[in-house]
Amino acid sequence: MPTSEKPYRVYRQPRRIKGDGSIPWDNSTDPKRRGPRHAGAGRRVLRFVRRAVFIAFAIAVVWSAIAFVSFRSAVKDANERVPESARRQLAPANGPAIAASHVIMLVGADTSTYRKRTLGEKGGRADTLMLMRVDVPSRTVSMLSIPRDLYVDIPGYGTAKINEAYANGGLALSIKTVHELTGVDINHVAQVDFDGFKDVIDALGGITIDNPYLVRSGPEGFDGKHWTFAKGELHLTGRRALAYARIRKVDSETLHYNEQEATDLGRARRQQRVIDAMVAKLASTNSFLHPRDVPKAVVGAMATDISATQMISFAFGKWWAKPENNLRCRLGGDQEGDNLLPDSDNRAVVRMFMGKQAPVPPDSALAPGCVRESSDAG
Predict the structure, then answer these.
(1) Nearest 5°: phi and psi at 327?
(2) Residue 118 — pLDDT band, cuts 50, 70, 90?
């Protein structure tokens, strides 16, 4: 085989002698050049980051598990407080909460000792009646307030103010009355007693609302105190939120901004703001950071048939919803003494609430109607 110069050059690495550290890895003594020592440090940093991420993930999983177990236990107790008679009045939904529209009846009940002893009421009064429709697929959360003075037919009792349905037959009769009034199938019910309402909000660390105009209570005040709520963003403790939601008599300066505040409909809108803020706070990181205290305090004042997983789905629905899709609706009527006689347009408002008709805002202080959440001015 002829010998000729090869077109390439063969390099041979010097053989390292055991114990001899004189030969550097890159065969260079230049201190500015980085070698395997730097590469090893990079690998160690990468391993540390991976372990830190894994530990953080594990902590998050454990923390979430603790939160869910505590939450599920509290919800189970709340489920047991709903009487079977009320459950029989509920209609099954068309699918799971994450994939179908669900209607929830929210009841704010005043079952105080004062009412039971002084006024002779057996079960108290439903001071707040509201339907909330959560439709996760369409990214919509809508509310329909039902004035407590609305004069309606109560099955088995004749015509009376709608809040007397609760006084005469509890949750079961309230659900049946609202269903016959609106024609809406009610899938779930959640009752909060006002005695525990303040504790719920305080457990959430308070709530924040956007108050569109000055609201000031009348001379008689509420809960033994005169209340003033300035225009703008307000942070409310439990006691202040309860006063904001329940005061009925307001002063003349408040009426200058909105005459609806002298009616039950004005109060219903304030109640919607409070409920909105509570649901938003429940869906925030605050509940995650306090996995044991918040769920027990919130659900502890509630009686509901809603399961823990359904509540999580509804909280997600509130977070997922688009403000421009959400509706704030109310039924209305004509004032006759202390009663509010139902308006003929109430049926149309129900269709708006259910997403079957375009929303139309109310045209007077007592009229029914719907507004978009994004354009709500009170």
Answers:
(1) -120, 145
(2) very low
Share of the chain above pLDDT 90, in %: 39
Q: Determine the Cα–Cα distance for residues 32 and 72; give it in Å rounded to an integer.
A: 61
3-state SS record for the chain: CCCCCCCCCCCCCCCCCCCCCCCCCCCCCCCCCCCHHHHHHHHHHHHHHHHHHHHHHHHHHHHHHHHHHHHHHHHHHHHHCCCHHHHCCCCCCCCCCCCCEEEEEEEEEECCHHHHHHCCCCCCEEEEEEEEEEECCCCEEEEEECCCCEEEEECCCEEEECCHHHHHHHHHHHHHHHHHHHCCCCCEEEEEEHHHHHHHHHHCCCEEEEECCCEEECCCCECCECCEECCEEEEECHHHHHHHHHCCCECHHHHHHCHHHHCHHHHHHHHHHHHHHHHHHHCCHHHHHCCCHHHHHHHHCEEECCCHHHHHHHHHHHHHCCCCCCEEEECCEEEECCEEEECCCHHHHHHHHCCCCCCCCCCCCCCCEEEEHHHCCC
d(CA 115, CA 181): 26
For residues 209 and 270, what is the distance between their CA atoms, to the nearest angstrom? Answer: 10
Q: Model's pTM, two decimal places? A: 0.75
Strand partners, 151: 161
Cα–Cα nearest to 338, from 164, 154, 218, 194: 164
Q: How far is CA 290 from the centre of its chain?
A: 16
Q: Is 153 exposed, middle or buried (0-12, 13-18, 19+ CB in 10 A)?
A: middle
First to last CA, the chain: 101
* pLDDT per residue as tens digits for the range 20-43: 555 555 555 555 555 555 556 777
- Amino acid, res. 68: F
Q: How far apart are CA 224 and CA 351, in angstroms?
A: 41
Question: pLDDT, tens digit, for every residue of 354-374?
Answer: 999 999 999 887 899 999 987
What CA–CA distance (Å, rounded) separates 329 from 23? 83
Task: State pLDDT tens for residues 240-283.
Answer: 999 998 887 888 877 777 777 777 777 888 888 888 888 777 76
